Automatic annotation (TrEMBL):
Signal peptide: none annotated. GO terms for molecular function: ATP binding. It comes from Neorhizobium petrolearium. This is ABC transporter ATP-binding protein. Gene3D superfamilies: P-loop containing nucleotide triphosphate hydrolases (3.40.50.300).
Length: 274
């Protein structure tokens, strides 16, 4: 992957807000010959909540993994204009990833699982304690710090996974279908949790989902992708005059947002070559 380094501090008089991440004409061909992404460009501003939506196999996870540095581009670049870049071309400590599976260590408590990324940075347990307890409180798990993953429900495990991702206070949270395996009510609760965290922390979120309803509820911007090869089909803001809450879920505004996203998705699927 190629990256370019930008000065961390803007030049005097430069009052422009720098994008957080810029994906420029990225293509990805796997060694199997599959062209997963073709000429994909995407600029994400600080504080955005962007959902990546599209048919199965259109390259959503591939795009997310490339942004996270978990995969290389074949051509194209990923730039981090507002971050300090490490030797791997990544903004040190600025990115966290939440996968569909909570991927917790079964032999560690909730506290131990959330402590892991801080431990890897050399932070002692005692120095990390207060912050970890605060993060656990944010996700509603303060009373479960000593519990083991086997004692938790699916939704609680996902909360631990989110707490672990937040422990390092990243600027960017990448979420790859995190709630797909959960029941609808748990999913809605976690949607509200993520929205609250997003509002409270000002974190930037890129959220991969198959769900029109979920994307229309959560995002202030939707990027619909097309498959074979994966590329951006539509990219639009989702502005609402209402708060995103139970009232919004039953509002005409939400219905219209779902209809718009759904139509864009149908358009993207309709354009596929079968
Ligand atoms: N490691 C890999 N090796 C070869 N091909 C891969 C690999 N990972 C993904 N692909 C292929 O790349 C394409 C995009 O896959 P990707 O998982 O990014 O899509 P997706 O939109 O996230 O799919 P889904 O919604 O089903 O999770 C698919 O055709 C997939 O088979």
């Amino acid at each position: 992957m190629t990256t370019s380094q930008a000065p961390l501090i803007p030049a005097p008089g430069d009052t422009r807000r720098r994008p957080l991440v810029v994906m420029r004409s990225v293509s990805k061909m796997f060694s199997s010959g599959t062209l997963a992404l073709s000429d994909m460009s995407l600029t994400v501003e600080p504080g955005e909540f962007v959902s990546l939506l599209g048919p199965s196999g259109c390259g959503k996870s591939t795009a997310l993994r490339i942004i996270a540095g978990l995969g290389d581009t074949t051509t194209g670049t990923i730039d981090w204009p507002s971050s300090r870049i490490n030797s791997k071309g990544l903004p040190e400590g600025d990115i966290s990833f939440v996968f569909q599976e909570p991927t917790l260590m079964p032999w560690q408590t909730v506290f131990g699982n959330v402590y892991l990324p801080l431990k890897l940075r050399g932070v002692s347990k005692s120095a990390a304690r207060d912050e970890i307890m605060e993060t656990l409180e944010t996700v509603g798990l303060k009373d479960f710090a000593g519990a083991y993953p086997r004692e938790l429900s699916g939704g609680m495990k996902m909360r631990v996974s989110i707490a672990r991702a937040l422990a390092t206070k990243p600027k960017l949270l990448l979420m790859d279908e995190p709630f797909a395996a959960l029941d609808e009510i748990t999913r809605q609760k976690l949607n509200d949790d993520v929205l609250r965290l997003w509002r409270e922390t000002g974190i930037t979120v890129i959220f991969v989902t198959h769900s029109v309803f979920e994307s229309a509820y959560l995002s202030n911007r939707i990027v619909v992708m097309k498959a074979r090869p994966g590329r951006v089909h539509a990219d639009f803001p989702l502005v609402t005059s209402l708060g995103r809450d139970a009232h919004y879920r039953t509002s005409e505004e939400y219905r219209q947002a779902c209809e718009k996203v759904s139509n864009m998705l149908l358009e993207a699927i309709g354009g596929e070559e079968h």
